[in-house]
Amino acid sequence: MDELHPDVQTATASIPAFLEELESWVSIDSGSYDKDGIDRLGALVRKRMERAGFQVTVYPQVEYGDHLLGIHTGQGRGHLLLLGHIDTVYPTGDVTRRPFRIADGRAYGPGIFDMKSGVLAFLTALELVGNPVLDSFERISIIVNSDEEIGSPSSTPLVREVAAAADAVLVFEPVRAPQSVVVARKGIAAYTLDVQGRSAHAGVMPDAGRNAILELAHLIVALQALHGSIPSVSINVGAVSGGGRRNVVPENAQALFEMRAANQQTFTAAKAAIQQIIDGNRHVPDTNVILTIGPIHQPLEALPASEPLIAIARQSGKTLGLELDMLHIGGASDGNTTGGMGIPTLDGLGLIGQNSHHPNEHIILAEIPRRLALICGIIRSLSHSIDYF
Ligand SMILES: [Zn+2]
After folding, report:
1. How far is the CA of 115 from the centre of ligand 1 (A)?
2. Predicted confidence (pLDDT) per residue in 338-387, tens digit
3. pLDDT tens per residue across span 210-239
4. 41 C-alpha to center of ligand 1: Å?
5. Distance 261 CA to ligand 1 centre (A)
6. Which of 197, 278, 325, 329 has the most CB within a 10 Å radius?
7. 353 CA to centre of ligand 1 in angstroms
8. How many angstroms separate the Cα of 181 from the Cα of each of 178, 231, 266, 310, 328?
């Protein structure tokens, strides 16, 4: 029944051109630190944004790839923001090592799933719905940024500025399950923990030393004990370093860890609990502890303000014969930034596939038409309801 839906039919007809363009995007290395590659890919994305009726402003970056802001001004009401990134986690040269290919009903290639296909999906959907739908918004903004995979250090101010004026935000990160979108993502706080002790000859004057590694070890055990002690909170100490020689009491030690939590309340509680551990008594006297926090992703919560947006997604899915799962997941995206500001945000609207950040990354071809149709349905519904948000 859903195959007969006109949006699915139109989307199906667009697939050959979609895949051809996607191949050209995936064939450009665009790791977060490959400014040259990102800017070359950005030029293609910009053309595509202009073709969809958007006026594009380039935000030049020195260190990272340039960011793109597209604006379509209509005669209607409401301001919709669409978000996507074109950087990947892969080093330059991966495109040559494992180029775009289609096999077993899947398309493979670096960044194809997360999330070059997502950016192309919403640009395609905007063209498919066309006017008068686009004109019945007061404004549609698109941000395509270049540094999401490293925490959006240079694009977050732009995302915040545009989102502050938006009524709703759609984020096109990929999802694994076919019938799903993402309504909530955990917040993440990244920490660096430095311990300073005192070095001494381990044989001649062992007690004159202050073992920084030992103090760090106690702190790690205490921090890790917070894992699960507050609902939804997870802690991971992911890297440790320190000392240098077996016969020297180590002067320095460092740990990198992160904390994740599902909502603002548990996020704040966990941050306070971490600080309390750091401020507590030292196991190794005379050691000094310095805790540095950042970057932080606020939790994206399924807030009451997001309910109308979630309802629209659900209804648009039903029209296509889909009962959408509303996922709560642990990984962060730029949706955390907009959701953390209290702007209704729906994420996970990108294409269906598997293995993001993995060499076997791919999208499922058979799922593309229905996904494009879902995006078209959501944009169309928003065009006559966003002013009630
Ligand atoms: Zn992504």
Report:
1. 5
2. 999 999 999 999 999 999 999 999 999 999 999 999 999 999 999 988 87
3. 999 999 999 999 999 999 999 999 999 999
4. 16
5. 19
6. 197
7. 13
8. 9, 23, 23, 9, 9
Please tell me the distance between residue 224's alpha carbon and the centre of ligand 1 in angstroms.
Answer: 28
Instruction: Say how far apart CA 147 and CA 144 lie, in whole Å.
Output: 10
**Rounded distance from Cα 288 to ligand 1 centre (Å):** 38
Asked if 136 and 75 touch (Cβ cutoff 8 Å), the reply is: yes
Instruction: List Cβ neighbours of 332 (8 Å cut-off, separation of 6 or more).
Output: 185, 186, 187, 188, 297, 300
The model's confidence at residue 37, banded by pLDDT at 50, 70 and 90, is very high
CA of 148 to the centre of ligand 1 (A): 7
| Angle between the N-to-C axes of helices 6-26 and 117-129, in degrees from 0 to 180, rounded to the nearest 10 | 140
Separation of CA 179 and ligand 1 centre (Å): 19
pTM attached to this predicted model: 0.90
Sign for the CA dihedral angle at 306, 307, 310, 316 comes to negative
* Mean pLDDT, residues 13-28 taken together: 98
